[in-house]
Amino acid sequence: MVRQVTVRELSALLESQAPTPQLLDVREPWELGICRLDGITHIPMREVPSALDELEPQRPVVVICHHGIRSQQVALYLDHQGFRQVLNLQGGMDAWAREVDAAMHIY
């Protein structure tokens, strides 16, 4: 089962001394041109199955998209592929821009 993480929880995690999870952004390239988090691994949703070797199955992975719908689908896929520490960013980049970083562009 894939756990949901709120944008506030992720923000606190990224600011803590805890090991940083891998941030997997599954949006399209044009979306990254509008807004993005630092340190992401970008693999568009349709390319994830052929790019699994770019991810670390033993490291926590937070899957990110615009509103949390595409990322939920990818998170479930990763869980079925044996990734055991998969989190879906609830509300996606839209929630991040609205709740964490007011300077970030919203689309």
Describe the fold and architecture.
With 107 residues, the protein is an alpha/beta fold. The chain contains 4 helices and 5 strands. It has helices at 7-15, 29-32, 69-80, 92-99; strands at 3-5, 22-25, 40-42, 61-64, 86-89. The protein has a 5-stranded parallel beta sheet. Strand 2 (22-25), helix 2 (29-32) and strand 3 (40-42) form a beta-alpha-beta unit.
Break the fold down into its secondary structure elements and pairings.
Layout: E1 3-5, H1 7-15, E2 22-25, H2 29-32, E3 40-42, E4 61-64, H3 69-80, E5 86-89, H4 92-99
Parallel strand pairs: 1-5, 2-3, 2-4, 4-5
Number of helices: 4
Please identify the structural class as seen in this structure: alpha/beta
Question: What average pLDDT do the residues reach?
Answer: 96
* Helix fraction by DSSP (H/I, runs of at least 4): 25-40%
CATH architecture: 3-Layer(aba) Sandwich
CATH topology: Oxidized Rhodanese, domain 1
Just give the CATH class. Answer: Alpha Beta
Count of separate structural domains: 1
Please name the defining characteristics of this protein.
107 residues, Oxidized Rhodanese, domain 1, five-stranded parallel β-sheet, 4 helices, 31% helix, 17% strand
Structure summary:
The chain has 107 residues and is an alpha/beta fold. The protein has a single domain, classed as Oxidized Rhodanese, domain 1. It is 31% helix and 17% strand.
